[in-house]
User: Fold Sensor-like histidine kinase SenX3 from Actinocorallia herbida.
Amino acid sequence: MDEVDFAAVFDAMPIPTSVLSPDGTFLTVNRAYEKASGRSREELVGAKLIERFPGGPADQGPEAVQASLARVVAEHRIDVMPLLRYDVESPEGVVEERYWSLMNAPVFGPDGEVRYIIHRGEEATDFVRKVRGRRAASRAATPEPSGRGGLFGLEARLQVIEADLYARTSELQADNLRLHGARERDTRDADRLRREMEKQRRAVADTSHDLRGPITGLQTRLQVALEDPLADPQDILRAALLDAERLGAIVGDLLELARLDARAPTKTAPVDLAEIVRTGLGHRSAGEPEIGTLLAKGAVVQGSAVRLARVVDNLIDNAARHAGTRIEVEVAVEGGHAVLRVHDDGPGIPEEDREAVFARFYRRADARAADPSGTGLGLAISREIAHAHGGTLHVADSATGALLELRIPLRVSPTAGSLR
Assistant:
């Protein structure tokens, strides 16, 4: 059996058809499309449909076709426009009123995404002109519009048919747009719900894993105390206390994250970020790496002093775990933002881990070795607090060590409020 020459079949198809890229660029057209559009294959291939056919001042064809192509790419579905006015410029430069029945269909690649779009266009201009011509002929042949039958009745029926045709086509296109809009909203909502469910699933799994450690530790200490009469009760109690403290820290951090996730309102007031840093450093022990400061004036934000103090403590704690000998803490005012930078001279954070460090319960191996009692929630909480203040927290570029940068908009209102 002979192999089918699909290229020849495509070129011989009597229906005007082209193949577009997802962005609407012509990849090929058949002879029927060349004839219907009045453009040669050489003129079309490599150009965008909207550029070659910009339409006329009285039609909305280009916008409608562009929206249809976008729906095909986004929804992976065939999109049909039963009757659309899309004016075309003739070779003489005259814009002609034209009507089309269009269909755009996706062709998928190996990755499941839209690789090509089949663009089929059947011209309906003659049909529309015939309807109008019959109505005009009927009107010309009718001497008086007072009769109810004959040609006047035919004209009336033609008028009704034409009006009904346009009305139903417009209604159908409007309904299609509404359905597409509703489907897009449903898809976005479903995606958001899936992300939230996955986030909750990961949170439950991570929480179970991290709570298991201190709970198992407590159970082991108590088991030893019950079964070994020679065990030192002071050692057992000290170890049990450490397990209980770690358990309390994890629960406390989880409660704070729950409040942040729920966008629970908290009272706000003007907060000087430099003063928060000074207060936080004043409470730290002397055995930590040396901490240098550069604190600018005027870094005042509208926020929660308690939560911002927690961010400062978390960032400095994180730096202290990784620093070699020194930490630099800077507060600056830049571009309408109060900026806090905490820079340590440790090994730094690999670029591939710059986002991962803000994930809940994520702890790098060196962090676990430096502080086994950490919860892995400090940076996650800090970023959520930054977002609650309309700000950002990220790992910035640094030649040495790790540099974390917090940016919060400066206070612009003199009144107190609430934070969500």
About this structure: The longest helix spans residues 150-227. The mean pLDDT is 82. The chain is about 50% helix and 20% strand. The two ends are 71 Å apart (CA to CA).
